[in-house]
Amino acid sequence: MKKTSLVIPSFVFAIIANAQITKVEIMATGLTCSMCSNAINKQLKTIDEVENVDIDLNKNLFIVRLKNNNTLSPKMFKDKVEKAGFFVGSMVLFINFRNQTVEDNKQIDKYIFIDTKAQTLNGVAKVRVLDKGYVTTKEHKKLVKSFAKYTTYSKDNEGIFHLKTI
């Protein structure tokens, strides 16, 4: 029994080490003034693993740089934006992969790659989160139709994120 408990943490660490978020670009919706962006900025900075946050007010874009060896998921950022009273219009992740082979409908840890050609990712790759709450409601309705062949996409799978390489 103890051998099994020792193997699992090593396996989980190996997966995390192979896919770590280094930067997040969040386009927020519903902002009307600089005070709105300040509310989101403050919420994002409460995350311990956040190194800094840059804001582009013209695009309502928040660029969040993360500390090394973090274990954050996209949900943490979405929750912080919503706690500030706003919504995520799009979320792009920069993930550092170490020789990870991805292909269409392949799950790696908490990520499922969709509409993605087979490739090996080594280094920082730019991916977009396509799930409900990470894109606008209008766009999500279109994506549900486009991605009907992916059985996991149309379901609310908390903790599972559908990504597309860009």
Overview of this structure, please?
With 166 residues, this protein is α+β, with helices and mostly antiparallel strands. The chain has a single domain (2-165), classed as Alpha-Beta Plaits (2-Layer Sandwich). Helix content is 30%, strand content 37%. It has four helices and eight strands. The protein has an eight-stranded mixed sheet with strand order 2-3-1-4-7-8-6-5. The chain is globular and about 45 Å long. Mean pLDDT is 88; it is low at 1-17.
Task: Throw out a few tags for this protein.
single chain; 166 residues; Alpha-Beta Plaits; 8 strands
Strand percent estimate? 35-45%
The strand order across the widest sheet is 2-3-1-4-7-8-6-5
Instruction: Write down the Rg.
Output: 17 Å
CATH fold assignment: Alpha-Beta Plaits
- The total domain count is 1
Distance between the termini: 43 Å
Structural class: alpha+beta
Just name the CATH architecture.
2-Layer Sandwich
Q: What would you call the quaternary organization?
A: single chain
Largest sheet: 8 strands, mixed
Low-confidence stretches: 1-17
Whole-number mean pLDDT: 88
Q: Based on Cα principal axes, name the global outline.
A: globular
Tally of strands: 8
Helix content: 25-40%
